[in-house]
Design a protein that fits this description.
Elements lengths: L1 H14 L14 E4 L4 E3 L15 H15 L7 E5 L5 H14 L5 E5 L7 H9 L5 E5 L11 H7 L10 E7 L7 H6 L5 H13 L3 E5 L4 H14 L6 H11 L4 H14 L5
Parallel strand pairs: 1-4, 3-6, 3-7, 4-5, 5-6
Antiparallel strand pairs: 1-2
Helix pairs in contact: 2-3, 8-10
Length: 269
């Protein structure tokens, strides 16, 4: 009977293996927050900052803020907002990589918006260390002002605000993270209260960096930077036609064109 129970227990353990251990918060340059534990990022290879074109002011401001955070000095939470594909996420990763390359102890932790409610657990994990952390929430947005109150509490004023060694880096296509028309409709009694809620959330970020649609010359400059870095030649007219067919000019579209160009010339990126 004992042997049978042992075999059953072993079989159940194989079917439901124990959870993987959390990654050491001091050992890796970048992590992913899984909602209940830190996992080391498999391949953290950000672009060199010099590869990012047309975002000089944003790059200077973000890099200076992250250098202060890495050094243990006062630093701001950052909102990077604006047009899609304009380099918000790439700049976050590249700036963290640049700080690390200069000898900084800063680590990146990427958390998905669906894990927002579990961020207090992440904060408890990293607060036990002296290492500085940039908590990266990519492409964040809310459908109503009330949905954003948890983030507002995490930024400041709540019982479980982020620890001193961590700052939030949030990217969004919306300047205030909430569509203005939805904010105006959110309260049937006093719409102004909902608008104030949406503005109060954006105001919690000490550093707000705007990213805007790029013109054709800048788009071609971005394509040229990528092409030169990978030893590719390109036809500017073809690159413009690629963007026209996609309905936008952006750093993302430029990279997609270069990937297609490399594939057609039998090169690996």
């Amino acid at each position: 009977m004992t042997d049978a129970l042992t075999r059953i227990a072993d079989a159940l353990e194989r079917m439901a293996p124990p959870p993987l251990p959390a990654a050491d918060p001091l050992a890796h340059p970048a992590y992913v927050w899984r909602g209940d534990r830190l996992a080391a990022a498999r391949a953290f290879a950000p672009l060199p900052l010099a590869m990012l074109r047309g975002v000089d002011k944003q790059r200077t401001a973000l890099l200076a803020n992250l250098e202060r955070l890495s050094a243990g000095h006062a630093a701001q939470d950052v909102l990077l907002w604006g047009a899609r594909g304009t380099g918000k996420s790439a700049l976050v990763k590249s700036a963290v990589g640049a700080v690390q390359a200069a000898g900084g102890a800063l680590a990146l932790v990427e958390a998905t918006p669906e894990h927002l409610d579990s961020l207090p657990d992440l904060f408890a994990t990293i607060a036990a260390t002296t290492r500085p952390f940039a908590i990266f929430l990519d492409d964040l947005g809310f459908d109503a002002a009330g949905d954003a109150r948890a983030l507002r509490s995490l930024l400041e004023g709540g019982a479980e605000a982020r620890p001193a060694n961590a700052r939030l880096l949030v990217t969004s296509n919306r300047r205030h993270l909430i569509p203005r028309d939805l904010a105006e409709q959110d309260s049937a009694i006093n719409p102004r209260d909902s608008i104030d809620d949406s503005l109060a959330l954006a105001d919690r970020f000490g550093l707000s960096l705007g990213f805007h649609a790029i013109d054709q010359d800048l788009y071609l400059d971005i394509v040229r930077g990528y092409a030169d870095a990978h030893g590719l030649s390109f036809d500017p007219a073809e690159a413009v036609n690629w963007a026209t067919r996609r309905g936008s000019r952006s750093g993302r579209v430029a990279w997609q064109y270069v990937v297609d160009l490399a594939g057609r010339t039998a090169k690996y990126l």
